[in-house]
Design a protein that fits this description.
The chain is α/β, with parallel strands linked by helices and about 250 residues long. It has a single domain, classed as Glutaredoxin (3-Layer(aba) Sandwich). Strands 4-3-7-6-5-8-9 form a 7-stranded mixed sheet. A two-stranded parallel sheet has the order 1-2. Helix 8 packs across helix 9. It is globular.
């Protein structure tokens, strides 16, 4: 594995959700067939754990937060996939709040981020190993910065599969064929929304609070536009529109 230190932007921990905090048309990070990038993370007991600690095993990494409904909707199905692959290590990396508000605000310290991560088990029945990213999102930024990414890393430390949105079906397909890397990097947003449902979305965002729900509702038209543009372009070209380092504009 390679080792890298990423300088995070000061705007990473935005206090309110906006569409422009994400580069929807680009997927940064190591691609399928490339070496995973090693990073130090922290478990809920405060111990240091690195990606390289899992070398020699198949590893599934999913990013999420207590206010990310795209992540919380996955938990029951990910349990099923995990049960079907007992030789695979499954971890959750806790990143910034997707929809912060007055009830659960954006993390202002590593302690606050750790406390938020500790709510997953009781609130959402999350039983995977949960590791916490640094306050400035060093891991998150390097691996793509989207709210709910999934990576599969093989025992040699090579990325076998990754996707901008984690889905149990996509993950199961990638794990079913471990001989050939899976290069599909985009999950169709229509299917994702259908699998989430309104109740899960509202319940999860209420963890953030009224402001989280308000910001999401206000952003819906732009969100729908962004997702459609990404899905249409990927369906036609088999890749994302922009390369890492470019910005989408408004």
């Amino acid at each position: 594995m390679n080792s890298i230190v990423t300088k995070a932007k000061m705007t990473y921990n935005r206090p309110r959700f906006t569409v422009m905090q994400y580069d929807w048309d680009v997927f940064k990070g190591p691609r399928a067939g490339e070496a995973a990038i090693d990073f130090p993370l922290t478990d809920l007991a405060g111990n240091a754990v690195s990606i390289s600690d899992f070398r020699g095993k198949w590893l599934v990494i999913e990013t999420g937060s207590a206010t990310c409904s795209m992540y919380t909707k996955n938990i029951p199905r990910m349990k099923e996939v995990r049960a079907q692959h007992p030789d695979v290590e499954f971890i959750v990396v806790y990143v910034r709040e997707a929809h912060p508000g007055e009830r659960l605000h954006q993390h202002r310290s590593s302690g606050e981020k750790m406390d938020a991560a500790k709510t997953l088990a009781a609130k959402y029945d999350e039983d995977r190993l949960t590791l916490v990213d640094g306050l400035s999102g060093e891991f998150h930024i390097t691996y793509g910065a989207m709210p709910n990414i999934v990576y599969v890393i093989n025992p040699q430390g090579i990325v076998h599969y990754r996707c901008n949105w984690a889905t149990a079906d996509g993950l199961a397909e990638a794990l079913a064929d471990r001989e050939n890397i899976n290069t599909n990097e985009n999950a169709d947003m229509h299917k994702l929304k259908a699998s989430r449902g309104l109740w899960i979305a509202v319940k999860t965002m209420w963890t953030g609070g009224f402001l989280a729900l308000w910001d999401f509702v206000i952003a819906l038209p732009k969100l729908a536009k962004r997702h459609k543009l990404v899905d249409d372009y990927y369906a036609e070209h088999g890749k994302f529109k922009q390369q890492p380092g470019q910005s989408q504009g408004d």
